[in-house]
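Researcher: Re-running this chain for the archive, since the previous output was lost when a drive failed. Same request as before.
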Amino acid sequence: MTAALDPDVRALVRAAEANGARPFSELGVAAARRMVESSPAPPAPEMHEVRDTGFDGPHGGVPVRVYRPLPGREPAPALVYLHGGGMVTGSVGSFDSLARHLAAACGAVVLSVDYRLAPEHRYPVANEEAYASLLWAVGNAPELGVDPARLAVAGDSAGGSLAAAAALRARDENGPALAGQVLLYPGLERANDRPSMVEFADGPILRRADVEWLKEQYLGPDPSADTPQGVPSLAGDLSGLPWSVVVTAHSDPLRDGAEEYARRLRESGVPTALLRYPGVCHGFMAQAGWIRRASTAFREVGALVRARFAEAD
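Model: Regenerated structure tokens:
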């Protein structure tokens, strides 16, 4: 499978394999977390300000890291960002580089949310904290120096699922009027027989077995109990959602599910940009600074988001 990858991506995949990368289900929760948290961080842009804050959520305190890319006029546009890691791994620390790139590319304040992880905190804990973070951002906009009229939600991988679910809930419960949603190779459904899930069942990086195991840690073993909040692809109606940017990677088992969601958004009348990048695999934007095409993706995503924020200014 590495033959279809760009040379810089292929080198990173081979380095991971040489270091003994194994399926999450084989590693187990503790070892998977150690692997994610100890992974080297790629270079990332300097910020005008980075500070830690938080709020009292439905399950206790929720840490949030605030990234302000440049000094300038307030209130600024903002993105509530939910990190990846399959709902089981990841933190604001291990996704610091991605948050910085997102802030710099979009010219927006990024509010990176350190939501609780499974299996200690199963569904719907992370979903409830993700939605609570939107309410907190709007309710504390003056203190945060952000414009609630230019607030979008963003997430990568599992965080993309949380972001999509938060946008659905905001629509259904007359919550914050989000300006947009940015979904980076989101995991919007359980493992299935879509062509990309079959072709890339053994990776690179993310395997079908990983998807199955990670989803089970958070959602539980019974798919019949799933709801659109836990599995956004189950939502029957996608109309009324904010403008959307959906990014996919060619060599990613999650690719086809995310692209189907983007098509459904378009069919529902939601302005949607779908960007598929060749030569890369799942998680590639977290490696910006090392992967050339990730830098391209950030430039293009940033241009789209900046243009949408400018329309709302």
